[in-house]
Design goal:
single chain, four-stranded antiparallel sheet, Immunoglobulin-like, alpha+beta, about 160 residues, 2 helices, five-stranded antiparallel sheet, 2 domains
Length: about 160
């Protein structure tokens, strides 16, 4: 009994097909996620958060979960030092995962007028979180603020459930 060699073309086609399957299974989704951006979506970050500190005065005025994204709008600032605005991040925390998203600044002269402080006129924020960037589950909603010399984290009473 003689052993037959596989034709060179069959080996080449098998390699091409195997490479295509590898691409489809392991590489295509992250690549297409970059093309499927939602206009105005917030950027995701990975960094160590402090333990919950409190000390943030905030109001979540809009929290909507649509088919493709979660939208948040509100204002937040540090209570000490005296009413200080800073960079606001939205934090989603489940039992297994944590996600941090930046926000877009929105001027809030109404907040400054109410608290009688020009320091908080830049305390408004807006955030669009694509559902494709987070795993399905239930998340606690938190806010993380940074100023030049202070950092604070607070979890709100609100939660988000994604399907």
């Amino acid at each position: 009994m003689t052993r037959r060699k596989l034709p060179k073309q069959l080996l080449v086609h098998g390699f091409i097909l195997g490479s295509f399957l590898f691409y489809c299974i392991f590489l295509a989704q992250p690549l297409f996620n970059k093309f499927e951006r939602i206009p105005g979506e917030s950027k995701s970050y990975t960094f160590a958060l402090p333990k919950e500190t409190g000390g943030i005065r905030y109001n979540i005025e809009k929290l909507e979960t649509a088919a493709q994204a979660i939208e948040l709008k509100g204002w937040a600032f540090l209570e000490k030092p005296r009413y200080k605005s800073g960079r606001v991040y939205v934090v989603l925390q489940s039992k297994r995962d944590i996600y941090i998203f930046d926000t877009y600044y929105q001027p809030r002269p109404d907040v400054a007028k109410y608290f009688k402080s020009d320091e908080v006129k830049n305390s408004g924020f807006f955030c669009i979180i694509p559902k494709g960037k987070i795993k399905q589950g239930k998340y606690k909603l938190g806010l993380y603020l940074e100023t030049n010399n202070a950092k604070a984290l607070i979890f709100t009473q609100k939660s988000i459930v994604t399907f």
